[in-house]
Amino acid sequence: MVDWYRIVLGMSVNHRAGVPPEAVRHGKPFSAFAFVSNYERDHRVVFFQIPNVSVDPDRRRHTGLQHVAFERPTLDDLLGTYVRLKRSGIAPVWAADHGVGISFYYEDPDRNIVELNVNNYSDVWTATEHIRPSRPHVAWVDPDKLLAAREKGLSRWQVHERATAGALAPDTPYDPAAHF
């Protein structure tokens, strides 16, 4: 998990420690942990190693956290991250333009969803005002088509307009139900 978050989000381990075996035997619920972050904060995510836990192959059918989101500063940064991850063999499970922003959704090794997104508006206030009056429209997008449009010189707003018009849709529609 630490390696996946390092590759996807640039997180590094700020602190890692093991718990003495006798503490685990006397009720400590975990045997090791790692605090990771991708900027000045001491941690953004903490991973615990829990002894005697078995993998639940049906974990998608249980309640829990649906996803966490990390905003990228620009569309070019989001697309650059997409290219970097694709080269590492990590592809989004789906991608969409929600009107308010463009999002790529990735699945970590434990099948948690991590959203990388960029705001389509110049500031957070304008984006919030966009989303308030109506239910946001979701347009599925193909990250490679977004990248090609940007490489052709389309502005981030033109990319957004083409995406919401359906011009950048994937050839095969996503099945997000497979990830809920």
Distance between the termini: 20 Å
> Strand share of the residues?
15-25%
Q: How many strands appear in the DSSP assignment?
A: 8
Q: How confident is the prediction overall: mean pLDDT?
A: 84
List the helices and strands in order. HEHEEEHEEEHEHH
The CATH class of the largest domain, by name, is Alpha Beta
Q: Could you give the order of strands across the largest sheet?
A: 4-7-6-5-8
CATH topology of the largest domain: 2,3-Dihydroxybiphenyl 1,2-Dioxygenase, domain 1
| Contiguous uncertain segments of 5+ residues | none
Number of domains: 2
Task: Give me the Rg, rounded.
Answer: 19 Å
Main β sheet profile: 5 strands, mixed
Oligomer: single chain
CATH architecture tag of the largest domain: Roll
Number of contiguous helices: 6
